[in-house]
Design brief:
2 copies of one chain form a homodimer. Chain A is mainly α. Chain A contains 9 helices and no strands. The first copy, chain A, folds into 2 domains: about 40 residues, Homeodomain-like (Arc Repressor Mutant, subunit A, Orthogonal Bundle), CATH 1.10.10.60; about 140 residues, Tetracycline Repressor, domain 2. Chain A binds a DNA duplex through helix 2 and helix 3.
Chain lengths: ~180, ~180
DNA sequence: GTCTATACGCGGATAGAC
DNA sequence: GTCTATCCGCGTATAGAC
Protein backbone atom coordinates (compact mmCIF):
# COMPACT_ATOMS: atom_id res chain seq x y z
CA UNK A 1 0.00 0.00 0.00
CA UNK A 2 2.64 2.49 1.06
CA UNK A 3 4.67 1.13 -1.81
CA UNK A 4 1.85 1.70 -4.29
CA UNK A 5 1.37 5.28 -3.14
CA UNK A 6 5.05 6.13 -3.36
CA UNK A 7 5.31 4.50 -6.75
CA UNK A 8 2.34 6.45 -8.05
CA UNK A 9 3.74 9.70 -6.65
CA UNK A 10 7.07 9.08 -8.34
CA UNK A 11 5.44 8.49 -11.70
CA UNK A 12 3.30 11.59 -11.45
CA UNK A 13 6.33 13.65 -10.49
CA UNK A 14 8.36 12.55 -13.46
CA UNK A 15 5.49 13.01 -15.88
CA UNK A 16 4.03 16.30 -14.72
CA UNK A 17 6.49 17.81 -12.29
CA UNK A 18 5.80 19.11 -8.85
CA UNK A 19 2.75 21.02 -9.97
CA UNK A 20 0.98 17.83 -10.94
CA UNK A 21 1.56 16.10 -7.63
CA UNK A 22 -1.75 16.31 -5.81
CA UNK A 23 -3.14 13.93 -3.26
CA UNK A 24 -6.12 13.13 -5.48
CA UNK A 25 -3.88 12.35 -8.42
CA UNK A 26 -1.64 10.14 -6.30
CA UNK A 27 -4.55 8.23 -4.80
CA UNK A 28 -6.20 7.66 -8.16
CA UNK A 29 -2.94 6.58 -9.79
CA UNK A 30 -2.21 4.21 -6.92
CA UNK A 31 -5.66 2.69 -7.19
CA UNK A 32 -6.62 3.59 -3.64
CA UNK A 33 -9.02 6.12 -2.23
CA UNK A 34 -8.00 9.47 -0.90
CA UNK A 35 -9.14 8.40 2.53
CA UNK A 36 -6.79 5.43 2.60
CA UNK A 37 -3.91 7.58 1.48
CA UNK A 38 -4.32 9.79 4.52
CA UNK A 39 -4.11 6.78 6.78
CA UNK A 40 -0.53 6.22 5.68
CA UNK A 41 0.66 9.74 4.99
CA UNK A 42 -0.12 12.78 7.06
CA UNK A 43 0.15 15.22 4.18
CA UNK A 44 1.21 15.71 0.62
CA UNK A 45 4.62 16.93 1.76
CA UNK A 46 5.20 13.84 3.83
CA UNK A 47 4.90 11.78 0.66
CA UNK A 48 7.56 13.91 -0.95
CA UNK A 49 9.79 13.69 2.11
CA UNK A 50 9.56 9.91 2.07
CA UNK A 51 10.41 9.76 -1.63
CA UNK A 52 13.49 11.85 -0.94
CA UNK A 53 14.54 9.75 2.01
CA UNK A 54 14.33 6.53 0.01
CA UNK A 55 16.10 8.02 -2.97
CA UNK A 56 18.95 9.37 -0.88
CA UNK A 57 19.30 6.18 1.08
CA UNK A 58 19.75 4.21 -2.14
CA UNK A 59 22.29 6.68 -3.43
CA UNK A 60 24.26 6.55 -0.20
CA UNK A 61 24.37 2.76 -0.24
CA UNK A 62 25.67 2.72 -3.80
CA UNK A 63 28.26 5.37 -3.02
CA UNK A 64 29.48 3.46 0.00
CA UNK A 65 29.97 0.37 -2.12
CA UNK A 66 31.88 2.37 -4.71
CA UNK A 67 33.99 4.08 -2.05
CA UNK A 68 34.91 0.72 -0.55
CA UNK A 69 35.94 -0.51 -3.96
CA UNK A 70 37.96 2.66 -4.55
CA UNK A 71 40.01 2.29 -1.40
CA UNK A 72 43.68 2.56 -2.25
CA UNK A 73 43.25 3.29 -5.94
CA UNK A 74 44.37 6.43 -7.71
CA UNK A 75 42.40 9.66 -7.58
CA UNK A 76 41.35 9.31 -11.21
CA UNK A 77 40.04 5.79 -10.69
CA UNK A 78 38.29 6.67 -7.46
CA UNK A 79 36.60 9.64 -9.04
CA UNK A 80 35.46 7.49 -11.92
CA UNK A 81 33.86 4.96 -9.59
CA UNK A 82 31.91 7.58 -7.67
CA UNK A 83 30.91 9.45 -10.81
CA UNK A 84 29.58 6.22 -12.25
CA UNK A 85 27.27 5.90 -9.31
CA UNK A 86 26.06 9.46 -9.65
CA UNK A 87 25.44 9.12 -13.36
CA UNK A 88 23.56 5.86 -13.04
CA UNK A 89 21.48 7.19 -10.21
CA UNK A 90 20.43 10.35 -12.00
CA UNK A 91 19.94 8.88 -15.48
CA UNK A 92 17.77 6.07 -14.22
CA UNK A 93 14.87 8.48 -13.73
CA UNK A 94 16.10 11.94 -14.70
CA UNK A 95 12.82 13.81 -14.40
CA UNK A 96 12.13 12.34 -10.99
CA UNK A 97 15.60 13.14 -9.74
CA UNK A 98 15.31 16.69 -10.96
CA UNK A 99 11.91 17.25 -9.38
CA UNK A 100 13.13 15.91 -6.04
CA UNK A 101 16.24 18.06 -6.24
CA UNK A 102 14.17 21.15 -6.68
CA UNK A 103 11.64 20.52 -3.99
CA UNK A 104 14.06 19.25 -1.39
CA UNK A 105 15.28 22.60 -0.08
CA UNK A 106 11.71 23.74 0.49
CA UNK A 107 10.83 20.76 2.69
CA UNK A 108 11.54 20.19 6.34
CA UNK A 109 13.32 16.87 6.22
CA UNK A 110 13.45 14.41 9.07
CA UNK A 111 16.63 13.71 10.97
CA UNK A 112 17.30 10.50 9.15
CA UNK A 113 17.35 12.20 5.75
CA UNK A 114 19.65 14.90 7.07
CA UNK A 115 21.99 12.22 8.39
CA UNK A 116 22.03 10.51 5.01
CA UNK A 117 22.97 13.73 3.28
CA UNK A 118 25.78 14.34 5.72
CA UNK A 119 27.05 10.85 5.05
CA UNK A 120 27.02 11.44 1.30
CA UNK A 121 28.98 14.62 1.73
CA UNK A 122 31.34 12.74 4.01
CA UNK A 123 32.19 10.24 1.30
CA UNK A 124 33.33 12.99 -1.04
CA UNK A 125 35.27 14.67 1.75
CA UNK A 126 37.02 11.44 2.65
CA UNK A 127 38.01 10.77 -0.92
CA UNK A 128 39.48 14.23 -1.42
CA UNK A 129 41.22 14.15 1.93
CA UNK A 130 42.92 10.88 1.07
CA UNK A 131 43.78 11.68 -2.53
CA UNK A 132 44.63 15.36 -2.37
CA UNK A 133 46.46 15.85 0.92
CA UNK A 134 47.13 19.52 0.23
CA UNK A 135 43.40 20.18 0.71
CA UNK A 136 42.54 20.89 4.30
CA UNK A 137 39.96 22.72 6.37
CA UNK A 138 37.71 25.10 4.59
CA UNK A 139 39.38 24.65 1.21
CA UNK A 140 38.63 20.95 1.47
CA UNK A 141 34.98 21.61 2.14
CA UNK A 142 34.71 24.08 -0.70
CA UNK A 143 36.37 21.64 -3.07
CA UNK A 144 33.98 18.87 -2.06
CA UNK A 145 31.01 21.14 -2.61
CA UNK A 146 32.40 22.23 -5.97
CA UNK A 147 33.01 18.78 -7.38
CA UNK A 148 29.59 17.66 -6.22
CA UNK A 149 27.95 20.71 -7.78
CA UNK A 150 29.75 20.57 -11.10
CA UNK A 151 29.10 16.87 -11.44
CA UNK A 152 25.49 17.27 -10.57
CA UNK A 153 25.08 20.17 -12.96
CA UNK A 154 26.58 18.26 -15.88
CA UNK A 155 24.66 15.09 -15.17
CA UNK A 156 21.36 16.86 -14.69
CA UNK A 157 21.76 18.82 -17.91
CA UNK A 158 22.67 15.64 -19.79
CA UNK A 159 19.57 13.97 -18.41
CA UNK A 160 17.42 16.86 -19.54
CA UNK A 161 18.85 16.62 -23.02
CA UNK A 162 17.92 12.96 -23.06
CA UNK A 163 21.49 11.75 -23.19
CA UNK A 164 21.67 8.01 -22.62
CA UNK A 165 25.31 7.10 -23.24
CA UNK A 166 26.42 6.71 -19.65
CA UNK A 167 29.99 5.75 -20.47
CA UNK A 168 30.62 8.94 -22.42
CA UNK A 169 29.04 11.05 -19.73
CA UNK A 170 31.02 9.37 -16.96
CA UNK A 171 34.13 10.06 -18.98
CA UNK A 172 33.40 13.76 -19.38
CA UNK A 173 32.34 14.34 -15.79
CA UNK A 174 35.39 12.52 -14.49
CA UNK A 175 37.55 14.69 -16.70
CA UNK A 176 35.94 17.84 -15.35
CA UNK A 177 36.45 16.73 -11.75
CA UNK A 178 40.06 15.70 -12.14
CA UNK A 179 40.71 18.82 -14.21
CA UNK A 180 39.33 20.94 -11.42
CA UNK A 181 41.42 19.14 -8.82
CA UNK A 182 44.71 18.69 -10.61
CA UNK A 183 46.11 22.24 -10.30
CA UNK A 184 45.41 22.08 -6.57
CA UNK A 185 47.52 19.04 -6.12
CA UNK B 1 2.88 49.86 -13.86
CA UNK B 2 4.22 46.87 -15.74
CA UNK B 3 7.49 47.61 -14.04
CA UNK B 4 5.91 47.59 -10.59
CA UNK B 5 4.22 44.26 -11.25
CA UNK B 6 7.38 42.59 -12.51
CA UNK B 7 9.37 43.96 -9.62
CA UNK B 8 6.85 42.66 -7.11
CA UNK B 9 6.80 39.27 -8.79
CA UNK B 10 10.57 39.05 -8.65
CA UNK B 11 10.66 39.84 -4.95
CA UNK B 12 7.98 37.32 -4.15
CA UNK B 13 9.80 34.68 -6.17
CA UNK B 14 13.06 35.15 -4.35
CA UNK B 15 11.42 35.21 -0.96
CA UNK B 16 8.92 32.40 -1.24
CA UNK B 17 9.77 30.50 -4.39
CA UNK B 18 7.45 29.56 -7.17
CA UNK B 19 4.79 28.31 -4.78
CA UNK B 20 4.33 31.78 -3.34
CA UNK B 21 3.87 33.47 -6.67
CA UNK B 22 0.15 34.09 -6.96
CA UNK B 23 -1.63 36.82 -8.83
CA UNK B 24 -3.17 38.14 -5.64
CA UNK B 25 0.18 38.30 -3.91
CA UNK B 26 1.78 40.05 -6.87
CA UNK B 27 -0.98 42.62 -7.15
CA UNK B 28 -0.92 43.39 -3.46
CA UNK B 29 2.87 43.66 -3.35
CA UNK B 30 2.87 45.91 -6.39
CA UNK B 31 0.26 48.15 -4.80
CA UNK B 32 -2.26 47.66 -7.60
CA UNK B 33 -5.52 45.81 -7.75
CA UNK B 34 -5.91 42.37 -9.20
CA UNK B 35 -8.09 43.81 -11.94
CA UNK B 36 -5.39 46.17 -13.11
CA UNK B 37 -2.85 43.40 -13.15
CA UNK B 38 -4.94 41.47 -15.63
CA UNK B 39 -5.03 44.44 -17.95
CA UNK B 40 -1.30 44.13 -18.45
CA UNK B 41 -0.73 40.42 -18.11
CA UNK B 42 -2.97 37.72 -19.50
CA UNK B 43 -2.07 35.15 -16.85
CA UNK B 44 0.23 34.30 -14.03
CA UNK B 45 2.49 32.40 -16.42
CA UNK B 46 2.84 35.37 -18.71
CA UNK B 47 4.34 37.31 -15.80
CA UNK B 48 6.88 34.56 -15.31
CA UNK B 49 7.65 34.43 -19.03
CA UNK B 50 8.28 38.15 -19.11
CA UNK B 51 10.60 37.95 -16.10
CA UNK B 52 12.58 35.27 -17.87
CA UNK B 53 12.75 37.22 -21.10
CA UNK B 54 14.09 40.31 -19.36
CA UNK B 55 16.57 38.33 -17.30
CA UNK B 56 17.93 36.46 -20.31
CA UNK B 57 18.14 39.60 -22.41
CA UNK B 58 20.29 41.25 -19.77
CA UNK B 59 22.54 38.22 -19.50
CA UNK B 60 22.95 38.08 -23.25
CA UNK B 61 23.91 41.75 -23.45
CA UNK B 62 26.53 41.31 -20.77
CA UNK B 63 27.91 38.19 -22.40
CA UNK B 64 28.17 39.93 -25.76
CA UNK B 65 30.17 42.72 -24.19
CA UNK B 66 32.47 40.23 -22.52
CA UNK B 67 32.86 38.23 -25.72
CA UNK B 68 33.81 41.36 -27.63
CA UNK B 69 36.41 42.16 -25.00
CA UNK B 70 37.70 38.58 -25.15
CA UNK B 71 38.33 38.64 -28.88
CA UNK B 72 41.84 37.51 -29.62
CA UNK B 73 42.82 36.70 -26.05
CA UNK B 74 43.83 33.31 -24.74
CA UNK B 75 41.32 30.61 -23.88
CA UNK B 76 41.97 31.03 -20.17
CA UNK B 77 41.39 34.75 -20.27
CA UNK B 78 38.30 34.47 -22.45
CA UNK B 79 36.80 31.86 -20.15
CA UNK B 80 37.47 34.08 -17.19
CA UNK B 81 35.68 37.02 -18.77
CA UNK B 82 32.57 34.99 -19.57
CA UNK B 83 32.56 33.24 -16.21
CA UNK B 84 32.73 36.62 -14.50
CA UNK B 85 29.53 37.60 -16.25
CA UNK B 86 27.80 34.38 -15.27
CA UNK B 87 28.86 34.66 -11.65
CA UNK B 88 27.81 38.28 -11.33
CA UNK B 89 24.50 37.57 -12.99
CA UNK B 90 23.62 34.66 -10.75
CA UNK B 91 24.94 36.04 -7.47
CA UNK B 92 23.13 39.32 -7.86
CA UNK B 93 19.83 37.64 -7.00
CA UNK B 94 20.55 33.94 -6.44
CA UNK B 95 17.10 32.88 -5.28
CA UNK B 96 15.41 34.62 -8.15
CA UNK B 97 17.78 33.12 -10.69
CA UNK B 98 17.25 29.67 -9.28
CA UNK B 99 13.47 29.96 -9.28
CA UNK B 100 13.47 31.14 -12.90
CA UNK B 101 15.82 28.34 -13.88
CA UNK B 102 13.47 25.77 -12.48
CA UNK B 103 10.26 27.08 -13.91
CA UNK B 104 11.63 27.91 -17.33
CA UNK B 105 11.41 24.42 -18.86
CA UNK B 106 7.77 24.15 -17.86
CA UNK B 107 6.75 27.35 -19.63
CA UNK B 108 6.01 27.92 -23.27
CA UNK B 109 8.36 30.73 -24.06
CA UNK B 110 7.84 33.23 -26.83
CA UNK B 111 10.01 33.32 -29.92
CA UNK B 112 12.07 36.22 -28.69
CA UNK B 113 13.14 34.39 -25.54
CA UNK B 114 14.03 31.32 -27.54
CA UNK B 115 16.14 33.46 -29.85
CA UNK B 116 17.95 34.97 -26.88
CA UNK B 117 18.78 31.54 -25.54
CA UNK B 118 20.12 30.43 -28.88
CA UNK B 119 22.28 33.52 -28.98
CA UNK B 120 23.67 32.77 -25.52
CA UNK B 121 24.53 29.27 -26.56
CA UNK B 122 26.09 30.67 -29.71
CA UNK B 123 28.52 32.78 -27.71
CA UNK B 124 29.88 29.74 -25.92
CA UNK B 125 30.06 27.80 -29.16
CA UNK B 126 31.96 30.60 -30.86
CA UNK B 127 34.45 30.87 -28.05
CA UNK B 128 35.18 27.14 -28.04
CA UNK B 129 35.35 26.98 -31.81
CA UNK B 130 37.93 29.74 -31.90
CA UNK B 131 40.01 28.59 -28.94
CA UNK B 132 39.87 24.83 -29.27
CA UNK B 133 40.02 24.11 -33.00
CA UNK B 134 40.04 20.36 -32.46
CA UNK B 135 36.43 20.57 -31.31
CA UNK B 136 34.01 20.26 -34.19
CA UNK B 137 30.47 19.15 -34.90
CA UNK B 138 28.69 17.25 -32.22
CA UNK B 139 31.65 17.14 -29.88
CA UNK B 140 31.72 20.92 -29.99
CA UNK B 141 28.07 21.14 -29.05
CA UNK B 142 28.46 18.66 -26.23
CA UNK B 143 31.45 20.54 -24.89
CA UNK B 144 29.54 23.83 -24.96
CA UNK B 145 26.64 22.26 -23.11
CA UNK B 146 29.02 20.70 -20.58
CA UNK B 147 30.92 23.87 -19.73
CA UNK B 148 27.67 25.78 -19.42
CA UNK B 149 26.17 23.11 -17.17
CA UNK B 150 29.18 22.66 -14.91
CA UNK B 151 29.57 26.40 -14.52
CA UNK B 152 25.93 26.87 -13.80
CA UNK B 153 25.91 24.01 -11.30
CA UNK B 154 28.86 25.39 -9.37
CA UNK B 155 27.59 28.96 -9.38
CA UNK B 156 24.09 27.98 -8.37
CA UNK B 157 25.32 25.84 -5.50
CA UNK B 158 27.60 28.63 -4.33
CA UNK B 159 24.67 31.02 -4.40
CA UNK B 160 22.59 28.64 -2.33
CA UNK B 161 25.35 28.38 0.25
CA UNK B 162 25.35 32.15 0.46
CA UNK B 163 28.84 32.52 -0.94
CA UNK B 164 29.61 36.13 -1.72
CA UNK B 165 33.28 36.18 -2.70
CA UNK B 166 32.87 36.49 -6.46
CA UNK B 167 36.58 36.58 -7.23
CA UNK B 168 37.22 33.26 -5.55
CA UNK B 169 34.24 31.67 -7.24
CA UNK B 170 35.22 32.99 -10.67
CA UNK B 171 38.65 31.53 -10.08
CA UNK B 172 37.34 28.09 -9.22
CA UNK B 173 34.78 27.93 -12.02
CA UNK B 174 37.36 29.06 -14.55
CA UNK B 175 39.69 26.37 -13.33
CA UNK B 176 36.99 23.74 -13.74
CA UNK B 177 36.21 24.87 -17.27
CA UNK B 178 39.79 25.03 -18.45
CA UNK B 179 40.50 21.76 -16.68
CA UNK B 180 37.66 20.14 -18.55
CA UNK B 181 38.84 21.54 -21.87
CA UNK B 182 42.59 21.14 -21.62
CA UNK B 183 42.89 17.40 -22.31
CA UNK B 184 40.77 17.89 -25.44
CA UNK B 185 43.11 20.40 -26.88
C1' DG C 1 -9.23 -0.46 6.99
C1' DT C 2 -11.18 1.19 3.04
C1' DC C 3 -14.52 3.56 0.96
C1' DT C 4 -17.69 7.93 -0.56
C1' DA C 5 -19.01 12.32 0.16
C1' DT C 6 -18.07 16.65 1.49
C1' DA C 7 -16.31 20.70 4.04
C1' DC C 8 -13.07 24.23 3.58
C1' DG C 9 -9.89 27.51 1.79
C1' DC C 10 -7.26 29.45 -1.72
C1' DG C 11 -5.88 31.05 -6.19
C1' DG C 12 -6.92 32.33 -10.94
C1' DA C 13 -9.68 34.91 -13.50
C1' DT C 14 -13.84 37.92 -14.70
C1' DA C 15 -17.78 41.37 -14.29
C1' DG C 16 -19.21 45.51 -13.72
C1' DA C 17 -19.18 49.94 -10.98
C1' DC C 18 -16.81 54.29 -10.90
C1' DG D 1 -8.06 52.47 -16.54
C1' DT D 2 -8.51 51.24 -12.02
C1' DC D 3 -11.11 49.63 -8.64
C1' DT D 4 -14.20 46.09 -5.66
C1' DA D 5 -16.71 42.16 -5.50
C1' DT D 6 -17.36 37.74 -6.87
C1' DC D 7 -17.48 33.46 -9.50
C1' DC D 8 -15.46 29.22 -10.23
C1' DG D 9 -12.64 25.23 -9.95
C1' DC D 10 -9.32 22.65 -7.72
C1' DG D 11 -6.72 20.61 -4.02
C1' DT D 12 -6.15 19.41 0.81
C1' DA D 13 -7.96 17.24 4.36
C1' DT D 14 -11.77 15.19 7.23
C1' DA D 15 -16.22 12.83 8.56
C1' DG D 16 -18.69 9.16 8.72
C1' DA D 17 -20.78 4.96 6.36
C1' DC D 18 -19.70 0.18 5.47
Amino acid sequence: MVEAILDAAARILEEGGIGALGTNAVAQRAGVSIGSLYQYFASRDSILAELIRIDHARLLAELQQAAAKAGGRSLAESVRLLVEVGVSHQLERPELARALDYVEPTLSLDDETVAIERAINGIVLTLLKASVPSLRGRALEVAAADVAALSHGMIDAAGRRGETDRRALVERVSRAVTGYLSPVD
